[in-house]
Structures are given as structure tokens and as C-alpha cells.
Amino acid sequence: MKLNFRRIIAIINKEFIQIRRDPRTIALILMMPIMQLLLFGYAVSNNVDHVPTAVLNLDIGSQSRKLLSSFSNSQYFDLDYYVKSIDDVQKLVDKGAVKAGIIIPPDYSENIARGKTAQIQLVVDGTDPTTAQVILSSAGSITQVYSTEIVSQKIQTLTQGRKLSGVLDIRPRVWYNPDMDSVYFNIPGLIGIILQNITLMLTSFALVRERERGTLEQLIVTPIKKMELMIGKIVPYIIIGFVDLILAVAIGTLWFKVPITGNILLLFAFSIMFLLGALGVGLFISTISNTQLQAMQLSMFLIMPNILLSGFMFPRDAMPKVIYMLSNFIPLTYFLKVLRGIILKGVGIEYLWPEFMILVVFGVGVLVLAAGKFQKRIG
Description:
By secondary structure, the chain is mostly helical.
């Protein structure tokens, strides 16, 4: 089928004119990436530190003060409240002023000096299970390190200062995100979410808007071919998607200081494939919707499962097997792996070619499906 590029360019110009005349669309295109990156970048964080903590220290020895110094110096706990009874700890937890409480018994230092097991109590607010688990893990690590130091000191005393060999020495090294900052994990994912949401919502209105305004029938009776109309509708949103991609990448690297360690051109190539799939889904929604309200409702219906199941917020490995298998049919799942692989790890196409093929197959398939449905509606 021979395509007339003059007619395609005319449809592209017409689409841009419609977008330019709609201030809400322009605001959505420009402000949505900025707002989502700033809100998610700061608000959605898996880091749990500087936990407000209450302290009930019933011990007068130096060992309890050393223990509390270990908690304070770790940066995980802020010892903001020193109280005099367990009731005070409970009141602070109930008010939400603290998330944890450290209770040291009166015989703590004495038991340490005698070589006995010294116990402390950690009270944790469990209304937020994720935060509670991190608090427990952090407190366990701090006490384990402190306990190891005490045992080591006693061994050195018993051996009269002789250096012992054969002790396990673990030296961890975290690759790609040494500080384990959740921003490094969230920002690449947000780029994929933004590309999907904007292109899906905008293209889902493309044909519905023509139908509501009565201009679709005028396009049908013109010499323009159906495929030319489809291409003319898609191209403007590919350009818009790239503008938002560049904007999101710029904010991620310049504002949040997340460097792109991989090939930026490879990232753009994968983005094209992902955009084609998202645009195809949007066009399919537009062909089966009678009003823009219906198109928006269907778009939101698809957006939420994509965010929840793709691995953007929750690890897929922790999902039930059925949900995990279902997430394999979501293109965003593979695009997030690509984004984090290129941006954080700097990997190349030799590691990401399976994801590239999946995105290509999905993009072409959904565009063909949308074109077929579109032909039935106007043929």
C-alpha cells in the first residue's frame, strides 16, 4: 500500500493544532512529568532512617550509655525522648511521636561486667509493617555489632592481649547503588511510568475526540487512507513522548543526581519500542470508547495494574505465583528492567535483547490490533 506523506503530514499538523488549542493537554504534557518525578522521588522512599525513638534507661552504668551511643551514631535512630516509665513509652507510641522504644533494665551493666547475658527490650510500632521490619533489622544489626565488640574485648583480656587469627571477616560491597538509596531505584522506574501514563491517556482520546466533535466522519470521506490516518495520529504523541522522556531524564540526572551509566541512544531506542506499544493500547482504547470519559476510565483501569504489578513499587519475586505470571504480560515489566539496567548498571544490548524483542512483538501486535479494530469501526 502506497502512503501519501503529504496527507500524513497534514494529519500530524492537524493533531498538533488540536493539542495547542487545548491548554489542559499542554499542562498535562509539561507538568505531569515534573510533578510525578518530584512527588514520587521524594515521597516514595524505601529508606527508613532517623526513626524517632523513646529511651527508658533504668541502668546507671557506663555500658548502657555506650549501647545508646551505638544506636544514636548509626543514624537509624534519633533518641529524641528519654522517659521515666514504660507508660511514657506507650503514650509516645500511641500518639505517633515515636516509632520505637528502647528499654534497658537496671542490671544491664552489671550483667555485662559479670559475663552474663544482658537483655534489652525494643518496642516497635507495628502499624506500618515495612517500617517495623526495617527497625527490627537495623536494631538487630547494631546490637550484634556491639555484642561482638564486647566479646572481642573479653577474649583479648583472657588471652592477655594476644591477637587471634581465624576470625570470620566479612567485607560487603554493594554494586551500582552503594548507598542503597531508594531514589536510584525509583527515578528510572518513574521514567517508564511517565511515558506510559501520558502516551496512554493522550492517545486514548485521539479518535474519541474526533468522534465527539463530529470531525471523524469528515476525515473518512476525504482521500486519506486509514493507515495514513493512524500514522498521523501516532507520530505527534511519539514526539510528545520523547519530549517528556528528555524532560524526565534531565530532572532525574540534574535534580536527583542519578547518573546514566549506560548508552543514552540505546535507552532512546528501547523507549521507541515501548512508546509504540503504549500508543497502540491508547488507540485501541480510543476505538472501543464512545466518549472521552469512557476512554479515561479504561486508561485508569489499565494504569493501576501496570504500576502495581510491573515491579515499580513492589518486588515481583515476592508476589504470588499467579500474579507473578500475570505480570509477565505487562510491557512495563520489561521496560523497567531495561531502564534500571541501562541507567544504573550500564549494561548493553547483549544483556537486554530478550526485552527488546518482547517490546517489539508487543508494540507491533497491539498496533495491528488497534488498526484492525479501527478499520471495523470506520469501514
